[in-house]
Specification:
single chain, about 220 residues, mainly alpha
């Protein structure tokens, strides 16, 4: 798929997702449940390509637990903390993906994990941290009023690093599963992006980690 196809899909789907997330309510719950149900189906799709039968059940069980945790984290973050954190995470992950793509294409260089994901580069990892820091600084300044801009910048940098590093791990993990069974994509639902799991692999792990950090009081932003 071309870059234009990927861009068009993002432009169309992005505002819809943000709107559903912002308004919440029943549409948000239905959308979240459907999203994770599709992701679980794609875990099943991965498992059925597994050569070793003893690993097929493990993939399904893990997928069910992983999707359930991500769904719970997403819903609890939205209901307990409002739009701020869920919006921050989703926008941050998108910004991280864009930054990685731009830096990786323009700079290139040494591969990050060539045996798992041949297209990922060290420069892409750098972009995946820098770009969300810039975007999230403005995002936080919009929602957090009358706060020292230096403090907000510090928060945005912390969020960007968490999103970058954890998101890359989530992405690489799904890449490992796909490469093991010889799949390029987990599905074909989203033009230019593959399956739902291909699109939210980083988001799922970041969501779980952010939710956990909030529960243990390691994140204490307003």
């Amino acid at each position: 798929m071309s870059f234009l196809t990927r861009l068009l899909s993002a432009v169309i789907l992005g505002p819809i997702v943000i709107a559903i997330l912002y308004f919440g309510g029943l549409p948000f719950l239905i959308f979240s449940g459907a999203l994770m149900a599709i992701a679980l189906y794609e875990f099943w799709n991965i498992s059925r390509h597994e050569v070793k039968k003893k690993w097929r059940l493990s993939v399904i069980v893990f997928g069910a637990i992983y999707c359930a945790l991500a769904l719970y984290a997403l819903i609890d973050l939205r209901l307990e903390y409002g739009f701020f954190y869920t919006g921050l995470i989703i926008i941050g992950v998108w910004a991280s993906d864009i930054g990685a793509y731009i830096f990786g294409r323009l700079i290139g260089g040494r591969k990050l994990a060539p045996s798992v994901s041949p297209n990922k580069t060290i420069s892409g990892l750098l972009g995946a941290c820098i770009f969300p820091a810039l975007i999230l600084d403005n995002y936080m300044m919009f929602f957090i009023q009358n706060t020292d801009p230096t403090l907000v910048l510090k928060w945005s940098l912390i969020a960007a690093v968490i999103i970058c590093l954890i998101g890359q791990l989530g992405d690489l993990f799904i890449s490992v599963l796909k490469r093991r069974v010889g799949l390029k994509d987990t599905g074909k639902l989203i033009p230019g992006h593959g399956g739902v799991l291909d699109r939210i692999d980083a988001l799922m792990l970041v969501m779980i980690v952010f939710w956990t950090l909030l529960q243990v009081k390691l994140l204490i932003w307003p």
